[in-house]
Design goal:
Length: about 325
């Protein structure tokens, strides 16, 4: 499978590329010298993310990024640190040991989890473990803990079809002919989304295989800067495009049988799926950032199965 479709599309920093002052501060806080660093595959961030082994045998997972290099990285890492620090201890999330911010570089250190992302393409057993764990995650994070997140219905990006209807993109008809033909209807469905997005569940907001770790007995959810508060079933619906892209099965059957969606009003689910599909379609049509040259391909690869699922539903 193309590395892109496994969620690997960025160019991550190596440990030895971090400024010496940052490496020294990390070692000081960890109480030992780093003797090995394994960069974590997956994701689209250019920041450092990797497993560090210390001279004394200790292990830790560290993320480090510079706001001067990419402004959004500093904002995202600060936000993630404040969110994860406020999660309940029993939540299936690696424990945040500490974090620091020198005004430019932001560094987070987590307990290393003895697990790995799911193998791609999806195996049925792994997929079912993750889908079951998602039900447990919702139970653990409802009501939402008191962490600094926005409301799902207020999120930018989930108005992609309405944006395209107001300002048509010249490449839409070639890239997504059915969407172009049905754009007004899709924008109408999407307009219903804010009225069904509300809820009191803390949502991950960016579930994909590369944000999951499978251990022997747990599924862990990592990378939380996109967390929001909203309707309990949103993480499942927003997970489907990447799941289907990576061979994860029948999206319609999952929606019909999963405990989070089986009893939900079908029109509400449709509005949610439209909002998610509109996000991937509209984002895929934008120019790619210089540091993430394949991000639009990755978004298109998710938009296509999302649109297929939506087309069969409408």
């Amino acid at each position: 499978m193309d590395a892109l479709l496994t969620g690997s599309g960025g160019t991550r920093l190596r440990w030895d590329q971090l400024p010496e002052r940052i490496r020294d501060e990390v070692e000081r806080r960890l109480g030992g010298r780093v003797v090995a660093a394994h960069v974590q595959d997956g994701g689209f961030s250019p920041a450092f993310a990797g497993r560090l082994r210390l001279a004394g045998g200790g292990r830790v997972f560290v993320k480090a990024g510079s706001a001067a290099d990419e402004a959004y990285i500093g904002t995202a890492f600060r936000h993630e640190a404040r969110i994860v620090a406020g999660l309940p201890e029993h939540a299936p999330v690696p424990r945040l040991r500490w974090w620091f911010d020198d005004g430019d570089w932001v560094v987070l250190a987590f307990d290393e989890a003895a697990g790995a992302p799911p193998a791609m393409p999806w195996r049925r057993t792994d997929r079912d473990r993750v889908l079951a764990a998602l039900t447990g995650l919702v139970a653990d994070l409802t009501p939402a803990p008191d962490v600094p997140v926005s409301q799902l219905g207020d999120q930018d990006g989930l108005d992609g079809f309405r944006t395209l209807a107001a300002d048509p993109h010249p490449g839409l008809a070639d890239a997504y002919p059915w969407v172009a033909a049905e754009l007004d209807a899709l924008a109408g469905w999407e307009a219903r989304w804010p009225s069904v997005a509300g809820g009191d569940t803390l949502l991950h907001g960016d579930l994909r295989a590369d944000n999951l770790l499978l251990t022997d007995d747990r599924v862990l959810f990592v990378d939380w800067p996109s967390a929001v508060r909203g309707v309990a079933w949103f993480d499942l619906v927003s997970f489907l495009p990447s799941l289907l892209m990576q061979g994860g099965g029948d999206g319609a059957q999952i929606l019909a049988t999963h405990p989070l969606t089986a009893e939900v009003d079908p029109d509400a689910l449709t509005a949610g799926l439209v909002a998610v599909s509109g996000y991937f379609v509209s984002q895929s049509l934008l120019p790619a950032p210089a540091r993430l040259p394949r991000i639009r391909e990755f978004q298109r690869a998710q938009a296509l199965p999302a649109v297929d699922l939506l087309r069969a539903r409408l």
